[in-house]
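Duplicate of #3305? Posting structure anyway:
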């Protein structure tokens, strides 16, 4: 019975964690005119958490860049590999350990008194920065925050990144 109860409690907690949704927000410099922007290039390599062995940074880099390039291309922007672009795109990724606390009442813990349960998870933040090519002045910034699953399959990880990038760039350029 104790094993069944533990499984039930863990399942309940995981359902709360899985209910967390992607959070996206953006901001931009209102004094900048985005109407003349047509071409972009990538900034030098982003800051990375190379000390975390759970993350394959080369794969992550490819996924982020592919997602950004797909969205920007669909919006009519061209990526330059040589020459002077109108703007530069960069990104940064951070991972933070978070905890979620929930109450357990007699409905879920029939053999235990009501109380609290706490569960840890990893939260990832993907930040996109768009800067003026000449001055490197920040023009626009997007931030996506979501739970990171290290057991998700590659397609799920790719889709999570694509969804975050689409959400951030949905209203880029601002009007």
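Output from current build:
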């Amino acid at each position: 019975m104790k094993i069944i109860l533990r499984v039930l409690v863990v399942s309940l907690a995981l359902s709360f964690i899985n209910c967390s949704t992607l959070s996206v927000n953006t901001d931009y410099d209102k004094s900048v005119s985005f109407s003349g922007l047509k071409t972009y290039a990538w900034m030098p390599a982003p800051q990375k958490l190379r000390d975390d062995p759970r993350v394959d940074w080369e794969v992550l880099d490819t996924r982020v860049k592919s997602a950004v390039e797909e969205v920007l291309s669909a919006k009519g922007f061209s990526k330059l590999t040589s020459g002077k672009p109108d703007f530069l795109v960069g990104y940064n990724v951070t991972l933070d350990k978070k905890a979620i606390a929930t109450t357990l009442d007699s409905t879920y813990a029939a053999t235990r008194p009501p109380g609290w349960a706490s569960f840890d998870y990893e939260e990832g933040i993907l930040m996109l920065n768009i800067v003026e090519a000449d001055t490197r002045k920040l023009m626009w910034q997007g931030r996506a925050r979501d739970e990171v699953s290290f057991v998700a399959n590659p397609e799920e990880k790719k889709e999570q990144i694509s969804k975050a990038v689409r959400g951030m760039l949905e209203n880029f350029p601002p009007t």
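Confirmed duplicate; merging threads. Helices lie at 2-18, 57-74, 154-169. Residues 57-74 form the longest helix (18 residues).
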